[in-house]
């Protein structure tokens, strides 16, 4: 009987251990080898891959490339093309060997150079509080710009765009860039005549862009108050700027070519921020088959009127 049992188990389980009385299974032989460099590299690459997936490395890398490209291109087009080639092409070149500068405190040069008639530098900057303010403003604008690009890349890879709202974001790049350059100039030249006025426009433009970015993603619900907020802000922009420099410079023809181009570059985005959200609001009302009175609370309409009135008032006096 035992012989039959052993033959049966041997047939069914080739690894059956006949040795001993407990009839246990024999552990299969395994070949154990020392880990090689190839195994280590493959394991590390696998870890990097999964870490990149969790960290969304691709999204961040694409955002960095796009943001860096635009940040490099915009000042180049502004100064290297528009100013240098179009607006003031007749300015003579600087004599780099013979020129000197007595306004440079040379602090960032350390002991290598002392104040006086210092030699030519491509970039001069003094160790002052205004230089720090310029750096803070520049850093804030660059960070906000990068974060907005990163958000749009994430939307593109995980969801879908509302193309009309994406167009509004692109159109508003010039006003944001102009704000950064203006604050740079205010602090650099200590010329603050229009500082408060421009700060009002800058803050409201950032609020507008925040709502536009939110609406770029189809996953975010389109709501009446968001569209009304954009309409109110840009209506204030049109009223304030239209009753100020735009009429005098563009319509009355008293502005230079540069001023006319600047005013048009700032007015056109405001107009689009009225037309496109207005059309989207119309589609929203039509899609929901609701009356305007049913779609908006009385408080929202009242707030819209108050914001336009107060915004126009403060925009004019600042």
If you had to describe this structure to a student in words, what would you say it looks like?
This protein is mostly helical. The chain folds into 2 domains: 34 residues, no CATH class; 190 residues, no CATH class. Helix content is 70%, strand content 0%. The longest helix is centred in the C-terminal third of the chain and has 32 residues.
Write the layout of secondary structure elements.
Elements: H1 2-12, H2 37-55, H3 57-87, H4 129-158, H5 163-171, H6 173-189, H7 195-216, H8 224-251, H9 257-288, H10 292-295, H11 298-317
Helix pairs in contact: 3-4, 4-6, 5-7, 5-9, 6-7, 7-8, 8-9, 8-11
Q: What is the count of helical runs? A: 11
Shape: flat
The count of strands amounts to: 0
Topology order in helix (H) and strand (E) letters: HHHHHHHHHHH
How many domains would you count in the coordinates? 2
Q: What does the average pLDDT come to?
A: 85
The first-to-last residue Cα distance is: 108 Å
Report the β-strand fraction as a percent range. under 5%
Structural class: mainly alpha
Radius of gyration: 33 Å
Estimate the helix proportion, in percent. Answer: over 70%
Which regions contain 5 or more consecutive residues with pLDDT less than 50? 18-27
Largest sheet: none
Keywords: Membrane, Transmembrane, Transmembrane helix
Transmembrane segments: 61-84, 134-153, 165-183, 195-213, 225-243, 301-317
Attribute tags:
2 domains; transmembrane helix; membrane; 318 residues; transmembrane; mainly alpha; 70% helix; single chain
